[in-house]
Amino acid sequence: MKLTAENALRELVAGNLRFVEGCQTSQNVAINRAELSKGQSPIAAVIRCADSRVAPELVFDQPLGSLFVCGVAGNIPTLEIIESIEFSMQHLGTLLIVVMGHSDCGAVSAALHNEVVEGVFARVALAPVPDLDECIAYNAEQGINTILGTSRMIEDAVKKGIVQLVAGVLNIETGVFELVAQTKLSN
Ligand SMILES: [Zn+2]
Fold first, then answer.
1. Would you give the end-to-end CA distance of the chain in angstroms?
2. Which residues, including other chains, have CB under 8 Å from residue 6's CB and lie 6 or more apart?
3. Contact 49, 100 (CB under 8 A)
4. Which of 14, 36, 167, 174 is deepest in the core (most CB within 10 A)?
5. Would you tell me the crossing angle of helices 132-150 and 79-92 to the nearest 10 degrees?
6. What is residue 178's DSSP assignment?
7. What digits encode the pLDDT tens for the residues 28-83?
8. DSSP helix/strand/coil, 99
9. All domains in the chain, ordered by first residue
10. What distance in angstroms lies between residue 155's CA and the mean position of ligand 1's atoms?
11. Cα(172) to centroid of ligand 1, in Å?
12. Which pLDDT score, from 0 to 100, does residue 148 have?
């Protein structure tokens, strides 16, 4: 099956369901390493928070080589992260970009309570409503706008309907990854 942003997203949603139900199928075993040594073709790029409870390969039940993961506290698409994702699009054919927020995010909480005023934490986007869960979802969603406003290459690919950006929030307690925003694909 030809990889599209749509079926990549479908695979992540299905993998998350397996994770939630404890029915993981991805195996990261020695026999796969020989294959991996020949190259990678990740189905998606993921911008994750540095939080130790957030591991995209586990949450989406994917093997090594399947996800191009970039991380920073607060899952902020910094310039370096956006450049890394451009690389994955250009050289690895990535068509789906996921901004992955999560419940109980310390970076968003710190920003919400004005505990930090500079650095990457200060770039957390806060929702008009001063509620942690609202802000976590809002910050993930705003990640899409930051990427589109920073990278002409990604913006063009999204406008052509080839590349899709999605934002979602992982509920650490249930394991459910819930989409909160996504760009349109051409059909
Ligand atoms: Zn976090």
1. 17
2. 164, 185
3. yes
4. 167
5. 60
6. E
7. 777 788 889 999 999 999 999 999 999 999 999 999 999 999 999 999 999 999 99
8. strand
9. 5-182 (3.40.1050.10)
10. 26
11. 11
12. 97
